[in-house]
Amino acid sequence: MAPVEQDALAVQEQLFHQRVREWIICTLLFAGLYILCHFIITHFKKHTDFAAADDDEDAAVNRIALGLCTFTLAVALGAVLLLPFSIISNEVLLSFPHSYYIQWLNGSLVHGLWNLVFLFSNLSLVFLMPFAYFFTESEGFAGSKKGIMARVYETSVVLLLLTLLVLGMVWVASAILGDNPSRQSLYDLWECHLPYLYSCISLLGTLLLLLCTPFGLSTMFSVTGKLLVKPRLLEDLDEQLSCSRLEEATVSRRIISGKASCWLDLNVELLQEQFYTIRSQRRKLELRHRASPWQRNLGYPLAMLGLLALTGISVLIVCFHVLELLLDDAAMPRGIQVASLGQVSFSIFGSFGAALQVVLIFYLMLSSIVGFYSSPLFTRLLPEWQDTPLTKIIGNCVSLLVLSSALPIFSRTLGITRFDLLGDFGRFNWLGNFSLVFLYNMGFAGLTTLCLVRKVSWALQAELLRPLGLHKLQLTCARTPRRPC
Questions:
Q1: Cβ contacts of residue 365 below 8 Å, gap of 6+?
Q2: Residue 39: per-residue pLDDT
């Protein structure tokens, strides 16, 4: 064999081994995510929906739908980890450029992960989750033989009709709103229609993130104040605890005496409600009394300072990105086709800046989830421990997938990271619209600043009024009805 042929064969063999290695790594990563999501959903699902004692067919259908939900949740978790994994991989390659043991962490692997997440996100949103919902609601066509296959046939027909309806609407929208080749033909499904549909879904997800994230940041400040022990100025916990115990014992004796005697005219229900309120306050005081001075004086301030720092840094980065949008056209969130990892850091502060970007991405995702479940429209979707029905699990999986798949676009649009969108994530037409991107950044900065200022100002006002006892005066004035002049 000639030397040229040997070199070509060696190159092909190297490419084959690299491709096999990438598929093995992707399979192991997704298997780990699937197992983790399976344990999460198992702890939230309603066990009576999967008991085979009453109806084996319904239990089997629910298990199949649960497997599809687990797959979708694993894809959502992979979308959350996609951008942080890419940033960390770039910094690792920069730190160890000649290490033999990390050469598998290359641009081809990262680019393949982005393509797989995009593919599975489309598959889950367009086919798997609608199939799971219709599959659980189906009973088979009238006159057909009962069984799982009858439900599969009915679900397939309904899903096919829904797909034709949605694709028709997408084709009409793409033909009206822009010069898209999709209006010339209905056959270019994969290259035009599905990316356009996912572009609309991603735009919806980014708008949802824009609305939920500031609200979630405000909610996280409130939740932190409830979970941690707040330090109080000019406060005597021993005196308050003794007064609360004495008041609880007094109300308890009045309830007992009212039940034991028929001569006393007492509202026992009102006393019991007052007793439960006093007992709840007493337990909170005991919890604060048992907390150590370090936990009482440092835990809450450090947590609040951390939240303030992360929120303030996010707003500053977005404001700086707004200036970049005005001065440099390269700041627009565009996608690239080749992942050039290990060449330059995506932060001007090096590895520290990259680590800060990863922390901010997880922080914004967590705040968006908190804001999503705290909003009045989606409060009913909040899963309950071991008591969540299957339809609610499907709704949660779809919502989390929409939020998580929009996270890379959300982070890049706001300038949280300079890592360009890979694969089909950067093919969305609206990412090149300067007005939309500019207004998106201004909306996030304005809403987050407004929520932050209101929350911090109210918290400071409450903490300053409490030592002086003026908060009780405000409550008394608010409850006292005003007399007409």
A1: 80, 403, 404, 407
A2: 92
